[in-house]
């Protein structure tokens, strides 16, 4: 698993976009007290359920791997001229 440039910032953006996606789908909204781990796990599972990303292999669904999957997902969604893609 090769780390992306700006992976931490990409994960933050994935959480933001994932929150909007979940709200538009009507399946939930994050509260200010929700931990980043809970947000990451929820968004990852939602995207897997909606078949927008491939699930991780059984036993490999730990937080660092989920963060990496979310970073890859948002990286593909961003336009080519976005600052996080540089």
TrEMBL record:
Pfam families: DUF5062. It comes from the Bacteria. Gene3D superfamilies: Uncharacterised protein PF16691, DUF5062. InterPro entries: DUF5062, DUF5062_sf. This is DUF5062 domain-containing protein. It comes from Oceanicoccus sagamiensis.
């Amino acid at each position: 698993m090769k780390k992306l440039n700006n992976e931490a910032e990409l994960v933050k953006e994935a959480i933001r976009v994932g929150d909007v996606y979940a709200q538009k789908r009507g399946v939930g909204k994050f509260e200010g007290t929700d931990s980043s781990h809970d947000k990451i796990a929820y968004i990852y599972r939602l995207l897997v359920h909606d078949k927008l990303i491939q699930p991780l292999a059984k036993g490999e669904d730990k937080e660092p791997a989920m963060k990496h999957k979310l970073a890859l997902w948002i990286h593909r969604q961003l336009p080519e001229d976005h600052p996080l893609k540089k």
